[in-house]
Amino acid sequence: MNKVKGLKTKDLLGLRYLSAEDINLILDTTQSMKEVMTRPVRKVPALLGKNIVTLFYEPSTRTRTSFDVAAKNLSANTTNIGLAQSSVKKGETLIDTAKNLEVMGYDGVIIRHKMSGAPHLLAENIKGAVINAGDGCNEHPTQGLLDMFTMKEKKGDLAGKKVVIVGDIAHSRVARSNIWGLNKLGAKVVVVGPPTLIPIGITEMGCEVSYNLEKAISDADFINVLRIQLERQEEGLFPSVEEYHKLYGITVDRLKKCKPDVVVMHPGPINRGVEISSEVADGPYNVILEQVTNGVAVRMAVLFLLLSGKKPMLMKKGL
Amino acid sequence: MGIVIRGGKILEGSSQKEIKKDIFIQEGIIKSIAENIALPKNVQVIEAENLIVIPGLVDMHCHLRDPGDPEEETIASGTMSAAKGGFTSIACMANTTPPIDSPAAVRYVVSKAKQEGIVNVFPIAAATLGLKGTHLVEMERMIEEGAVAFSDDGNPISDPRILRLLLEYARPFGVKIISHPEVLAMSKNGQMNEGVLSTMLGLEGISSQAEELMVERDILLAAKFGAIHITHVSTAQSVIMIREAKSKGIPVTCDTCPHYFSLSEKNVDGFNTFAKVNPPLRTEEDVKEIIKGLKDGTIDAIATDHAPHREEKKKVEFGLAAKGMVGFETALPLALTFLSKEIPLAKIIKMMTINPAKILGIPKGELKEGAAADLAIIDPNAKHKIDIKQFASKSKNSPFDGMEVQGEIVYTIVEGKVVVKEGRLVPLK
């Protein structure tokens, strides 16, 4: 916890914009934060007096709670605003909401939004730090970071490691953050899924595409399994959940043909029997719950690096 | 009082080159175009040494938002913006609120333009009632009131049978049906061009096929049932198909807009809502083919698709932002900046004057004796930085702010009346 160096950026909008150096700084800091979490008193005063708000325009339990716990472990004050309580329904714009929060003295805004780029709009318009907790199909940088942290914990340096991401790549912000981040750390990424769920030009981001799951995972170090949203079936992007499971579901039978130390990951929430079988979800291969624990540590690191050492947001006199 | 424009080079009639001549204007008419006109008494002299006198620009596609949203644009502010851009005649689309789909609505636009417009305004009427694509409008009665063409622009005419009927019904009147080519089932919730960048940004893409399928359909119907004009062509394949159709003698014409040859999808990166437009900005390969199409005459005209939007419709999440950009005050500089290397000035000007005028069937776009004195005087080489704060349009939604361009509009004259002088609007009396 003696790091004084912070991130070069005001905000965390996406792993696309971070350097390998920044990513490593966050992952190293995460290690220290994880140590804090094992103490009998899991609280350090790093962000004492700082005000942080989670602004979630999309439902979430895991990510939001994780940020909330992370901020509290660092002694920050937290407020949670969800879509139902917010002014959105009254027609207020995102910028107006943000400006209001700013003058109440929030130092950091953690935002989840169903539209890609919403955190960028926020970041351009407020002085405080903006942390992207998932925007549309664009990025979910803290998920990408916690995935990479978990991978490093399991197998060390990621250079040359093979990561296979399986599922709805087109609509996945987790996939994008993984691809950006893993590339920067030198891992090899392969995406697998039905062609209708793999977007045009994805290889330009630095990954290979395969439609053959078994071949792709045969020499993989990690399999990152994405949640299949059932509404995609309604849109006609794939014919049925059953066929999806048959083609792309992660099962014990399939894992038996992989490297013995293959690690199965999932950002949650899982659809048992669809993208992952219960046997795998509850079995020895997966690290799904460890990912959740690491998520808190990663978010502590991000909050710490973005907010500590910065002066608290001062209220303007006369306001 | 008459006007003599002296010492400038002029783009006259169908000439391919600028020739140094003077112009004498009286009572709103070009009286004579000749070398060294002797100054009659009591005339205003405009010295145009080192400048070029061109026919006033003609825009065949713009949105003036009247009736609808006077905070975004009015016919007054829209025509002032047009005048600053060197336009003397503009044709406005029918997708106002309510839409221009009745003779009374056309009359409203015409009379409002007469009251407050400072350039000529030609309404393009809706092709179908309520822009719904199901029932034909009363074409003859609307032409009587001043409609010059028919279009559901903003929406495609999705039902091919309705388009066929429109093409057939319009034939006796000699007016054009203008197609906005978009297959809505393909473009769906799309936010930008589909490609590497839409994938990187996690934005729903609009494939170029969403446009091209409709262009192909339009060509097939035009070949059989009557002439069509396709507006805001944005993709390489659209240009290629139209080129082929023209070579077969199919009665199809088309236009593109300055943003389709000066910008690409890259301008969207960073979730830049000012670069959100429909059809979307495409790739650099598309831009190349658009320029090729302008050069070889496949694309007949450059139209602005001037689409004013109030600030709060752009300062929102990309997915919520309105599509479109203002265009009058940047069109000519962009054309000169991005096309001059490939296309001679005279040809660029034709695509912004006589060509669109002919497609609309309006007697505009040419400098000739006896014609209305609609003209602009430009300095084609003057460099400047685009500054949205200087726009006369009520809306400032332009992705070109700060861009270094060449070409300045020095004077705009509408029916003998100077409306822009030294690049500034002349205050109304």
From TrEMBL, chain A:
Kindly state which reaction or reactions the protein catalyses. carbamoyl phosphate + L-aspartate = N-carbamoyl-L-aspartate + phosphate + H(+)
Instruction: Kindly list the positions annotated as binding L-aspartate.
Output: 90, 173, 227
Which keywords belong to this entry?
Pyrimidine biosynthesis, Transferase
Xref: Gene3D superfamilies: Aspartate/ornithine carbamoyltransferase
Q: Where is the Aspartate/ornithine carbamoyltransferase carbamoyl-P binding domain?
A: 10-153
Q: Where does carbamoyl phosphate bind?
A: 62-63, 112, 140, 143, 268-269
Is Zinc a UniProt keyword of this protein? no
Main EC class the enzyme belongs to: transferase
The Aspartate/ornithine carbamoyltransferase Asp/Orn-binding domain covers which part of the protein? 160-305
Against HAMAP family, the record matches this protein to: Asp_carb_tr
The protein, known as: Aspartate carbamoyltransferase
Taxonomic source organism: candidate division WOR-1 bacterium RIFOXYB2_FULL_37_13
UniProtKB/TrEMBL annotation, chain B:
Write down the superkingdom of origin.
Bacteria
Among InterPro entries, the record links this protein to: Amidohydro-rel, DHOase, DHOase/Allantoinase_Hydrolase, Dihydroorotase_CS, Metal-dep_hydrolase_composite, Metal_Hydrolase
Q: Where is the chain membrane-spanning?
A: none
Q: In which pathway does it act?
A: Pyrimidine metabolism; UMP biosynthesis via de novo pathway; (S)-dihydroorotate from bicarbonate: step 3/3
Q: Which residues bind substrate?
A: 63-65, 95, 278, 309
Looking at the record, the residues that make up the Amidohydrolase-related domain are 52-419
- In this chain, Zn(2+) 2 is annotated as bound at 153, 180, 232
Residues where Zn(2+) 1 binds? 61, 63, 153, 305
Q: Could you tell me which Gene3D superfamilies the record lists for this protein?
A: Metal-dependent hydrolases, Urease, subunit C, domain 1
Query: Gene Ontology terms, cellular component aspect?
Result: cytoplasm
Per its UniProt record, the required cofactor names are:
Zn(2+)
Pfam families reported in the protein's UniProt record: Amidohydro_1
SUPFAM superfamilies (alphabetical): Composite domain of metallo-dependent hydrolases (SSF51338), Metallo-dependent hydrolases (SSF51556)
Q: Give the EC number(s) listed in the UniProt record.
A: 3.5.2.3
Note describing how the cofactor binds? Binds 2 Zn(2+) ions per subunit.
Return one GO MF term.
Answer: dihydroorotase activity
Stretches of the chain forming a coiled coil according to its record = none
Active site annotation, chain numbering: 305
Reactions catalysed, as given in the entry? (S)-dihydroorotate + H2O = N-carbamoyl-L-aspartate + H(+)
Family that this chain belongs to: Belongs to the metallo-dependent hydrolases superfamily. DHOase family. Class I DHOase subfamily.
The protein here is known as Dihydroorotase
What organism is the protein native to?
Answer: candidate division WOR-1 bacterium RIFOXYB2_FULL_37_13
